[in-house]
Amino acid sequence: MINSKNLKDIKDQILNCDKCSLRKLRDESKYFPVVGQGNHNAEIMFIGEAPGLNEAKTGIPFCGASGRILDELLKYVGIKREDVYVTNILKDRPPDNRDPEASEIEVCLPYLKEQIRIIKPKVICTLGRYSMGVIMQQFGLTAELDSISKIHGKEFEKDGIKILPLYHPAVAVYNGNMKETLKTDFQILKKYQK
Ligand code: URA
């Protein structure tokens, strides 16, 4: 059980966390945990899967190739990155970018839940299939869960928060059609701008 008053408390707890083996990799590789970045009162929260190499080297979420696509998509719909909050399901990089393990998600998820509780976004945009599955399950939307090709760009609502599954920006790095799909889906976010 995490007991935090604010996002700084959560950051401290993540820095000290050694509840799974990813901490060993963090220390051995001189990686940083990637806590999250952005506006603490954001209406829009993006949740990716886990830090990649660039993110683990800097501690900044989505700062590599996927991040450049995310920035481009935000710019396309006139939203500033500093107005949203960006984080991941896992705060530490899994080795060789492998999928997160269930035990890692279990120990890391309380941090994310606290971030959501404190920030109180109006909409949570899951980035990619993995984040979509975890978040929809957490919000009791398992019955609505389907393949990302069917439910991307579709808003769900639970406890006053909208959940919007989106493709992971990485899919658009080499695929222009996917970028168009992402651009269409990002238009939905315009209504959440302050
Ligand atoms: N991919 C993710 O899911 N998260 C990041 O922070 C970077 C790439």
Helices and strands, with pairings:
Elements: H1 7-16, H2 22-29, E1 37-38, E2 44-48, H3 53-58, H4 65-76, E3 85-88, H5 102-119, E4 123-127, H6 129-138, H7 148-151, E5 156-158, E6 161-166, H8 176-186
Parallel strand pairs: 2-3, 2-4, 4-6
Antiparallel strand pairs: 1-3, 5-6
Helix pairs in contact: 1-5, 4-8
The structure holds uracil (URA).
Q: What would you say this structure looks like, in words?
A:
It is a single chain. A hairpin with a 2-residue loop joins β5 (156-158) and β6 (161-166). α1 runs antiparallel to α5. This protein is an alpha/beta fold. Helices cover 41% and strands 13% of the residues. A six-stranded mixed sheet has the order 1-3-2-4-6-5. The protein has one domain: 3-Layer(aba) Sandwich (Uracil-DNA Glycosylase, subunit E), CATH 3.40.470. It binds uracil.
Report the C-alpha radius of gyration, rounded: 16 Å
Low-confidence stretches: none
* Largest beta-sheet details: 6 strands, mixed
Outline? globular
- N to C succession of SSEs: HHEEHHEHEHHEEH
Helix/sheet category? alpha/beta
What is the domain total for the residues?
1
Q: Going across the major beta sheet, what is the strand order?
A: 1-3-2-4-6-5
- Per CATH, the architecture is 3-Layer(aba) Sandwich
Helix content: 40-55%
Distance between the termini: 33 Å
Please outline what is shown here.
This protein is an alpha/beta fold. The protein has eight helices and six strands, in the order ααββααβαβααββα. The protein has helices spanning 7-16, 22-29, 53-58, 65-76, 102-119, 129-138, 148-151, 176-186, and strands spanning 37-38, 44-48, 85-88, 123-127, 156-158, 161-166.
